[in-house]
């Protein structure tokens, strides 16, 4: 019974990813988020983008 428990604990430990892999995943996601925010800000700050329609303009049907 003790050998079964020892083997079970060893397989459980082997299944957990190392901490460095988690740090790399968080770093890549963080860099991607910053790039996405920067791209969105740059596109929204462009002067030549079309203006939205005036919501107070009367509708011509």
Low-confidence stretches: none
Task: Choose one word for the global shape.
Answer: elongated
Q: What is the percent of helical residues?
A: 55-70%
* Total of helices: 2
What is the rounded distance between the termini?
Answer: 82 Å
Radius of gyration over all CA atoms, rounded = 27 Å
In oligomeric terms, what are we looking at? Answer: single chain
Query: Strand count, sense and closure of the main sheet?
Result: none
Tally of DSSP β-strands: 0
Number of self-contained structural domains: 1
Structural class, from secondary structure content?
mainly alpha
Order of helices and strands: HH
Mean pLDDT: 79
Our estimate of the beta-strand percent is: under 5%
Describe it for me?
Helices cover 66% and strands 0% of the residues. It has 61 residues and is mostly helical. The protein has one domain (1-48).
From the structure above, extract its key features.
single chain, 61 residues, mainly alpha, 2 helices, elongated
Summarize this, please?
The protein has 61 residues and is mainly alpha-helical. It contains 2 helices and no strands. The protein has helices at residues 2-15, 19-44.
